[in-house]
Amino acid sequence: MKAQAKLRVAALIVAAGRGSRVGGAVPKQYRLLGGRTVLARTLSLFERHPAVDSILTVIGTGDEDLFAACSAGISKQAGHVFGGSTRQASCLAGLKALIGDRPDIVLVHDAARPFASPALIDRAIEAARAHGAAVPGLAVTDTIKQIDLDGRVKATPERSLLRAVQTPQAFGFDLILSAHLAAAEAGIETLTDDGAVAEWAGHPLHIFEGEASNMKLTTESDFQRAEQAANELAALGDIRTGTGFDVHAFAEGDHVWLNGVKIPHDRTLKGHSDADVGLHALTDAILGAIGDGDIGSHFPPSDPQWKGASSDRFLAHAVRLVRARGGAIAHLDVTLLCEAPKIGPHRDAMRARIAEIAGIAVERVGVKATTTEGLGFTGRREGIAAMASATVRLPWG
């Protein structure tokens, strides 16, 4: 199969607003949040993402020095341009500045959304690749009322059909540039986001899954909540890494348990519990990170109560030990070594199950598989081995 060509991706950060609803001596994107400015945090999201090639920021006139301090050390920074009197005008200024570079995809993101995850950026790029114009959205949980100018209710929209739209909004570059140029030519100036510009120009707009944590800092109470979250994370500054390794031999059977997923197979794995080699390695990795023995010391094979036990109990126990210490699981990663069964078709289910057991986001879980090229006991199909690592954050002291 022919490999898919690498697309050039540019991030356009809109930072020209004044943040009047928050107030303060500087615009909200230049306020400190957990010791760093909001804009510096936002730029870092795209700087660290491997699929983003360049970053262009739209700033307000007179903010050059503030921006220079925020963008120091951002190697992908392609400079800045000055925005206009509306968000729509600012985005158009940024898009025009990207014409020389002409990326395939542009991600337009609000400077005041510093909590977008790498997984959200991944989804945005893929949605733009697949649909041309796409925006992240969250299902609306509150009942929405449409009112008239006198405050009387006119309609109650069906909330299952409503979405609260976020950024980064993702587009084919030529598509969104031409849409913005056409809107400006027509004298349309009040469209509030780039998705609306694409809609106005007649392009179908796709909604992909957003993130509840991807909040926009709009009011003072938003900053207070964000500051509390940033301080709580900063307090967990004791970062530990643990590793785990486990092996189980094959026996007669018709399925195996791997990373919490039951997979049909012509053999089974032999062990005192369900012999889930992946979850056992992950459990040992977490216990290693907090220096609390190994899986055998917590769940002795000699104890009959663990005979045939589901290994999700072992992993959940290790996670509880971390939380009892005031800590948090930052990342879990497991590699399975086997010739069969094939892991690829079950990878997403495994990641989701591990994330569910550990109580973390699925983007904080990695699952990989490899063979030993026919060498050793795994190469002879005598069993399966697993290696795992766990990154844990604990409070200092």
From TrEMBL:
Its EC number is 2.7.7.60, 4.6.1.12. Residues 239-392 form the 2-C-methyl-D-erythritol 2,4-cyclodiphosphate synthase domain. The record marks 21, 28, 272, 371 as: Transition state stabilizer. Residues 1-239 are annotated as: 2-C-methyl-D-erythritol 4-phosphate cytidylyltransferase. HAMAP family: IspD (MF_00108), IspDF (MF_01520), IspF (MF_00107). Its cofactor is a divalent metal cation. Keywords: Isoprene biosynthesis, Lyase, Metal-binding, Multifunctional enzyme, Nucleotidyltransferase, Transferase. The keyword RNA-binding does not apply. InterPro entries: IspD, IspD/F, IspD/TarI, ISPD_synthase_CS, MECDP_synthase, MECDP_synthase_CS, MECDP_synthase_sf, Nucleotide-diphossugar_trans. This is Bifunctional enzyme IspD/IspF. Pathway: Isoprenoid biosynthesis; isopentenyl diphosphate biosynthesis via DXP pathway; isopentenyl diphosphate from 1-deoxy-D-xylulose 5-phosphate: step 4/6; Isoprenoid biosynthesis; isopentenyl diphosphate biosynthesis via DXP pathway; isopentenyl diphosphate from 1-deoxy-D-xylulose 5-phosphate: step 2/6. One of its GO terms (biological process) is isopentenyl diphosphate biosynthetic process, methylerythritol 4-phosphate pathway. The record marks 159, 216 as: Positions MEP for the nucleophilic attack. GO terms for molecular function: 2-C-methyl-D-erythritol 2,4-cyclodiphosphate synthase activity; 2-C-methyl-D-erythritol 4-phosphate cytidylyltransferase activity; metal ion binding. Bifunctional enzyme that catalyzes the formation of 4-diphosphocytidyl-2-C-methyl-D-erythritol from CTP and 2-C-methyl-D-erythritol 4-phosphate (MEP) (IspD), and catalyzes the conversion of 4-diphosphocytidyl-2-C-methyl-D-erythritol 2-phosphate (CDP-ME2P) to 2-C-methyl-D-erythritol 2,4-cyclodiphosphate (ME-CPP) with a corresponding release of cytidine 5-monophosphate (CMP) (IspF). The lineage of its organism: Bacteria, Pseudomonadati, Pseudomonadota, Alphaproteobacteria, Hyphomicrobiales. 4-CDP-2-C-methyl-D-erythritol 2-phosphate binds at residues 246-248, 272-273, 294-296, 370-373, 377, 380. Coiled coil: none annotated. It comes from Labrys okinawensis. PROSITE patterns: ISPD (PS01295), ISPF (PS01350). It comes from the Bacteria. Pfam families: IspD, YgbB. Residues 240-397 are annotated as: 2-C-methyl-D-erythritol 2,4-cyclodiphosphate synthase. A divalent metal cation binds at residues 246, 248, 280. In the N-terminal section; belongs to the IspD/TarI cytidylyltransferase family. IspD subfamily. Belongs to the IspD/TarI cytidylyltransferase family. IspD subfamily. It catalyses: 4-CDP-2-C-methyl-D-erythritol 2-phosphate = 2-C-methyl-D-erythritol 2,4-cyclic diphosphate + CMP; 2-C-methyl-D-erythritol 4-phosphate + CTP + H(+) = 4-CDP-2-C-methyl-D-erythritol + diphosphate.
